[in-house]
Amino acid sequence: MELAHRVKTLSPSSTLAITAKAKELKQQGHDVIGLGAGEPDFNTPDYILEAAKKAMDDGMTKYTPAGGIVELKKAIAAKFTDDNELSYANDQIIVTTGAKHALYTLFQVILNKGDEVIVPSPYWVSYPEQIKLAEGSAVFVQASEKNHFKITPNELEEAITDKTKAVVINSPSNPTGMMYNKDELEKIGEVCLKHNILIISDEIYEKLIYTEKPHTSIASLSNELKEQTVIINGVSKSHAMTGWRIGYAAGSKEIIKAMTNLASHSTSNPTSIAQYAALAAYSTEEDTTLELKQVFADRLDVFYDLINDIPGISCVKPEGAFYLFPNVKEAATKNGFTSVDEWVTALLEEEKVALVPGSGFGSPDNARLSYALSLEELTEAAKRIKRFVVNNQ
Ligand code: PLP
Question: Which residues are in the Aminotransferase class I/classII large domain (predicted)?
Answer without folding.
Answer: 31-385
